[in-house]
Design a protein that fits this description.
By secondary structure, this protein is of the alpha+beta class. It has twelve helices and 38 strands. The longest helix is centred in the last third of the chain and has 28 residues.
Length: 658
């Protein structure tokens, strides 16, 4: 085999190497990052996708006889010739020992018929099916990847489909226990396999392969650099740190106002109340039906005087009876399909969906939202749905203005979030939080708070989504909410359901956005029955007291990309006992939360991480870190919570005792 690595050149701060199939370009990207773009013959640049913030830097390039190396801060990549491959890539961290972090892997020893470590196969639409094979390392663990219910926190051994849908918001960022982050900058349909023998990233249809590798000495440093690359969340407004009331659905103005008035009569904290979908006459009218909402300006004014903000949920679909259908159809503002047979989606019959990647469609939709919501005083939006609405089997048949959905599927999400964020900013709104059914890389910079929709009211889903939420926030999406109580409720009258609501509120108190939602006729705190109200009220009052601490963590989330809620390994990676713990989490660095996610449980074991001292919030007992406490009391009144001794005052705030 002819050696060819010496043909590599370094120009314009970019290492460029061509083999017989494609061109590889590697450039320094932000602090301690390297961006790799591999373009096959016939490929092209469609978009920079989530890496559209210019972060190019000058790297340090060296050439040796059999290899070339490019370094940026704490990370370097070496390309060398092997007996079976030209330009084999290995990445190293430079903060002492120069550890090899990850490298392309293959299981062949001769040149003939080997599959290659990065491959492209032509497919339809002028795209390529692409694969990248990376070595698996013993003892490696992965976190992140967005919202995927895989049954565990550690993603090692998991296969994750790369597409968006209900209760699945993929963000292709994997944070490794080996001290690196790997971001797959391809919104295309595909999958990732975190196998025992290799890690395989697959795109079913892309124009080129694009990924970012970040070296870091901690999870915090990796996520800080990822936020620099994909965007920081805007400042989190104080009103958003309070309690959000929602249900499916308040059907009219008087019903909504009655609920808000009762909150105030009971002196219960309330920051936001939500108008859910079907508030329109026709799908796609994007306005409140006057038959049910006769005086929206008066409604907003009354709620504003109470200190309550209104959120509303306009959808992205349009039916033919809507006043917006004909002008949008004539202007070509809807998504299309490859065969013309899948131009509509199914939502109580055929509907069209606006194309958020089309600037004209974005401008048209925002003009209607501004006129019919914003100008009435409703400045907060629930983006449900913000994902592409075809059925899963038809995802690859849809087309967007920017590219076929096979290549750009997940970009639908961030395009819509960006459009609404920019519209709000242009209209003068600076305090932007949108609850979103989905998210992708960069969603955080548009004020998106991802929340799983339509999960079950069950202890099993409470347990599952505690883990899911931790991985979401390890993916750079620093705002997270989980419908308190779950959405789909079979029996809202049973004692078991009331206990579930108590335990879910006790968990939800320690999330960035504290919000209830559900398919229940009565979803207000005083309507949940079986003696649950005093316990739920106590939680709501505790959250209200905790809001200054919440805001302290949210400032860090916006400024540095540090998630306010995270697994124990985030802060205590040097403690080997925390790797497998997925039923405790940290709220900021100072509060250790130990939820109860099983019916009838009244005590649980708790592991206290690290070497410092922890204080039991409810008993004020002090315990050293690095130990497991057996049978810690967890009566129905509260869940076990501990604070670091350096922030002892938090005990009184959480427990409501001086």
């Amino acid at each position: 085999m002819e050696k060819s690595i010496q043909s590599a050149v370094y120009q314009d701060h970019t290492l460029i190497f061509r083999d017989h199939r494609c061109v590889t370009e590697i450039r320094p990207w932000g602090r301690d990052g390297l961006r790799v773009v591999i373009t096959p013959d016939g490929g092209k640049k469609t978009s920079d996708w989530a890496l559209d913030i210019p972060l190019g830097r000058e790297g340090f390039f060296t050439r040796e006889t059999d290899r070339v190396t490019l370094r940026n801060g704490k990370i370097s990549v070496t390309l060398r010739d092997t007996c079976t491959q030209t330009g084999h890539m290995s990445f190293y961290r430079h903060d002492g020992a120069g550890q090899r972090l990850l490298f392309e892997e293959y299981d062949y020893v001769v040149w003939a018929n080997n599959p290659g470590t990065h491959t492209f196969r032509p497919t339809d639409c002028g795209l390529f099916e692409a694969e990248l094979h990376l070595a698996a390392c013993d003892g490696e663990h992965f976190w992140g990847m967005g919202e995927n219910a895989v049954g565990r926190l550690d993603l090692k051994g998991s296969v994750i489909d790369l597409y968006q849908r209900h209760v699945k918001a993929v963000v292709p960022l994997a944070v490794s226990s080996r001290g690196y982050g790997f971001f797959w900058n391809n919104p295309s349909l595909g999958r990732v396999e975190f196998g025992q023998n290799r890690t395989r990233w697959v795109s079913y249809g892309c124009s080129r392969m694009d990924f970012l590798v970040i070296a870091g000495s901690s999870c915090a440093s990796i996520l800080e650099r990822y936020a620099d690359a994909t965007g920081h969340a805007p400042p989190f407004p104080y009103w958003a740190s309070g309690f959000w009331q929602c249900k499916l659905r308040y059907t009219c103005q008087e019903e909504l106002l009655a609920a808000a008035r009762e909150y105030k009569r009971r002196e219960l904290p309330l920051s936001v109340i939500v108008i859910d979908y079907m508030h329109w006459k026709h799908v796609g009218d994007w306005k409140l039906d006057p038959a049910c909402w006769p005086d929206p300006e008066g409604m907003v004014q009354e709620l504003d005087e109470m200190g309550v903000r209104v959120m509303i949920s306009p959808w992205t679909l349009v039916e033919e009876e809507s006043e917006n259908y004909l002008p949008m159809k004539a202007a070509g503002l809807f998504t299309g399909s490859l065969d013309g047979a899948h131009d509509t989606v199914d939502f109580y019959g055929p509907k069209y969906q606006y194309d958020p990647t089309n600037p004209a469609a974005a401008a048209y939709l925002w003009s209607k939202w501004k006129e019919n919501y914003f100008d009435l005083g409703i400045h907060t939006f629930w983006l449900d749905p913000c994902d592409e609405f075809h059925s899963v089997e038809d995802y690859d048949k849809a087309t967007f203005a920017i590219a076929p959905a096979k290549e750009a599927h997940a970009f639908f999400v961030t395009s819509h979030q960006r459009n609404i964020f920019n519209g709000l900013k242009a209209a003068g709104e600076d305090e932007i939080v949108t609850i979103c059914r989905n998210g992708w890389a960069g969603s955080q910079r548009y004020g998106a708070c991802v929340a799983p929709h339509d999960i079950y009211s069950s202890f099993a889903h409470l347990k599952e989504y505690i883990r899911v939420g931790l991985n979401v926030m390890m993916s750079g999406l620093v705002w997270w909410s989980c419908d308190i109580g779950g959405f789909i409720t079979d029996d809202s009258e049973s004692p078991a359901f009331s206990e579930l609501m108590i335990r879910w509120y006790q968990y939800g108190m320690f999330l960035p956005v504290f919000r209830t939602h559900g398919r229940r006729e009565n979803n207000e705190a005083w309507n949940l029955g079986n003696g649950s109200y005093p316990h739920i009220r106590a939680v709501m009052e505790a959250r209200e007291r905790l809001r200054p601490y919440v805001m302290e963590q949210m400032r860090l989330a916006s400024e540095r990309g540090i998630p306010p809620v995270r697994p124990l390994v985030f802060d205590y990676s040097e403690d080997p006992n925390v790797i497998e713990i997925d039923d405790e989490f940290l709220f900021g660095p100072d509060i250790l939360v130990c939820p109860v996610s099983d019916l009838g449980v009244r005590n649980r074991d708790v592991y206290l991480p690290g070497r410092g001292e922890w204080i039991d919030v409810h008993t004020r007992a002090r315990h050293p870190g690095g130990m497991c406490l057996k049978n810690v009391p967890a009566p129905i009144d509260y869940i076990p919570v501990f604070v670091r001794s350096t922030r002892e005052y938090l005990c009184g705030i959480i427990a409501g005792q001086p």
